[in-house]
Amino acid sequence: MTEPVVEPVDDVAWPVAVKLRELVGGALDGALGGTPAVVSVVPGRDVAIDSCCEGQAWVRIVRTYPVDPGEFPNGRGSALDEGADPGVFWAVELGAGSARCAPTIDDAGNPPTAAQLERSAAELADDAGRIRRTVLCEMQKLPAVEAVWIGEQSSVGPSGGCVGQEVLVAVMTNICVCEEDG
Fold it and tell me: Are the C-beta atoms of residues 79 and 85 closer than 8 Å to each other?
């Protein structure tokens, strides 16, 4: 049974995360390790890597925060009292990554071969390059995006037979959270 898609009442982080998920899915189509079977926006700080052997890619919302355009990607607090600075933009920090099966000991107790290890590393490097190019070349084209900051891209695992990589991305949006008074 297919779960119904529910749109959250979040006009800042959710739309940006969904767009990045679409871009990542397209970028990994035909990847060296194969097109991932699972590409989704995932909840939480840590990603539950449950489908690595079929290929798994994700986008996660790390945080959403107010930012002054001249200080992006650094966040700031914003007073909400009368006379507060209305020039606050909202930034969204995201993690975009992928995971694949890690080479492991075979049924006879033999460790993975050098060729298996190198193939696994090549698959992750291919995924990482595709995701990095997507962030660098496509994110700034989105209508709600004012600026993009790319952070470190780091390894995930190996753990539980899975290995992966993730890049951190901050996006300054031009979305107004409050309705303008007519």
Answer: yes
With vertex at residue 156, the alpha carbon angle to CA 162 and CA 95, rounded to the nearest 5 degrees, is 120
CA distance 114 to 103: 10
Q: List 89's β-bridge partners, or say none.
A: 67
Among candidate residues 142, 146, 151, the one with its CA nearest the CA of residue 170? 151
| Structural domain contains residue 33 | yes
Q: Which residues of 68-90 are buried (b: 16+ CB within 10 A; e: fewer)?
A: beeebbebeeeeeeeeeeeebbb
Tokens representing 30 are 């035909």
Q: What is the pLDDT of residues 53-77, one digit of tens each?
A: 999 999 999 998 888 777 778 776 6
41 CB-side CA count, 13 A: 18
Note the pLDDT tens digit of each residue in 121-153: 999 999 999 999 999 999 989 888 988 999 999
Q: What single letter denotes the amino acid at residue 130? A: R
Domain that holds residue 164: 13-43+51-73+87-173
- What SS3 class is residue 107? coil
As beta bridge partners, residue 66 has: 90
Confidence band (pLDDT; 50, 70, 90) for 180? low
What CATH number does the domain containing 111 carry?
A: 3.30.2000
- Domains contained in the chain, number: 1
